[in-house]
Amino acid sequence: MSLIAELRLADAWLVLRPSLEAAPEMTLKREWATAADRTSDPMLFVWASGGDFEAFEAALPDDPTIGEHECIDDRGDRRLYQVTVNREITTNPAPIERETGASRLSIETTVDGAVLELRLPNREALTEYISRLRENGFTVDLLRAHDADDAGGSEYGLSEKQAAAVREALRAGYFEVPRETDLGTLSEEFDISEQALSERLRRGVSSVLASTVGEPTEPQVGPVGEPVPGTGGAADDE
């Protein structure tokens, strides 16, 4: 059975990272076009959003990871760029993907690195893929991995919305020390209140912990009726 994995990559010449340093709030969501052959520099289409477009574009001509570049679509809050990747400078995971049977599903890059989602044949292939990335200069963190036919949370008793909330909180660094995002920012992503998201996250994390390291506990109620963190709480009917 195939496997879906999400990894965070850093500490290597990621495409467009030098330009991101000029616009550190920017996020890039990328799609790769097929090169004429494996020796040709690939053409990359990149959606950019959330940062200073003028600073980002000013840095593009001096970015050693790319060659030709052009903004081909402007939607106001996001822009689509077409760039040619410089293979001589960048660390390209594509050969590793071919050798391990991995299929890239998505990749999102910020100034802190790239979050990569891919499909692999099995866990042995995932282990080999991570090992090869590290050999090629990447720092790699495994964020999650699950069987391809699993929604990413059902095996732990999570609802789809709980699984989505926990996954996004993990991706955005909510569980890092110190935290890299907050409930206010995350709640805007899901268009719900901070309290509703907090309860959804607590119940989701509680379900995962109960399924992996212990038994579920009865919810405890703190001041003004708010559930005590990490102990469940009011039922999340979503």
Give structural notes.
The protein has 238 residues and is of the alpha+beta class. It has two domains: 3-147, no CATH class; 154-225, Arc Repressor Mutant, subunit A (Orthogonal Bundle). It contains seven helices and eight strands. The chain has helices at residues 17-22, 53-59, 94-100, 123-135, 160-172, 183-190, 194-212; strands at 3-10, 27-32, 43-49, 66-74, 78-85, 103-110, 113-120, 139-147. An eight-stranded antiparallel sheet has the order 4-5-3-2-6-7-1-8, with helices on both faces. β6 (103-110) and β7 form a beta hairpin. α5 crosses α7 (194-212) and α6 packs across α7. 24% of the residues are buried. Mean pLDDT is 82; it is low at 215-237.
Q: Could you give a short description of this structure?
A:
It contains seven helices and eight strands. It is α+β, with helices and mostly antiparallel strands and 238 residues long. It is globular.
What is the tally of helical segments? Answer: 7
Strands of the widest sheet, in order across it, are 4-5-3-2-6-7-1-8
Give the total of beta strands. 8
Please give the radius of gyration in angstroms. Answer: 20 Å
H/E order of the elements? EHEEHEEHEEHEHHH
What proportion of the residues form beta strands (DSSP E)? 25-35%
Low-confidence stretches: 215-237
Topology record:
Elements: E1 3-10, H1 17-22, E2 27-32, E3 43-49, H2 53-59, E4 66-74, E5 78-85, H3 94-100, E6 103-110, E7 113-120, H4 123-135, E8 139-147, H5 160-172, H6 183-190, H7 194-212
Antiparallel strand pairs: 1-7, 1-8, 2-3, 2-6, 3-5, 4-5, 6-7
